[in-house]
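Example for tutorial group B:
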């Protein structure tokens, strides 16, 4: 059975929801005397209408591909070719920082410059802020 969320916990979630990762929120709740799992925090944020992704976070190749209406292997290939800077999270998954994605869109490789230019600017702004 789950413990009911205290009003102070919910206020803390509202304060931190868009700036901190789930792990950071859990740590800060723990420092304030509340013990919640990452999945409990994730579920409560969803119930409160927040995304689990902080504003200045990282993207997976599949998230980028979905937003750009591309196949995920296309974005993965950009990473493997060194065009898009990323950190390897697992055997087949990469983590791309939003600042690296922004740099990629500002200065794309010559061979795909036209393809990048054809992407909707609103989608790019959504991704990189």
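The residue assignment follows.
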């Amino acid at each position: 059975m789950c413990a009911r969320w205290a009003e102070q916990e919910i206020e803390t979630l509202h304060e931190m929801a868009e700036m901190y990762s789930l792990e950071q929120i859990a740590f800060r709740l723990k420092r304030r005397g509340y013990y919640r799992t990452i999945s409990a925090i994730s579920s409560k944020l969803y119930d409160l209408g927040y995304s689990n992704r902080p504003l200045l976070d990282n993207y997976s190749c599949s998230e980028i591909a979905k937003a750009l209406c591309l196949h995920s292997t296309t974005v993965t290939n950009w990473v493997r070719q060194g065009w898009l800077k990323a950190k390897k999270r697992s055997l087949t998954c990469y983590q791309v920082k939003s600042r690296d994605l922004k740099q990629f869109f500002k200065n794309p490789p010559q061979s795909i410059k036209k393809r990048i230019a054809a992407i909707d600017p609103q989608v790019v702004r959504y991704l990189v802020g």
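Helices lie at 7-16, 22-31, 38-47, 61-68, 72-80, 98-106, 113-117, 121-128. Compare this with the pattern of hydrophobic and polar residues in the output above.
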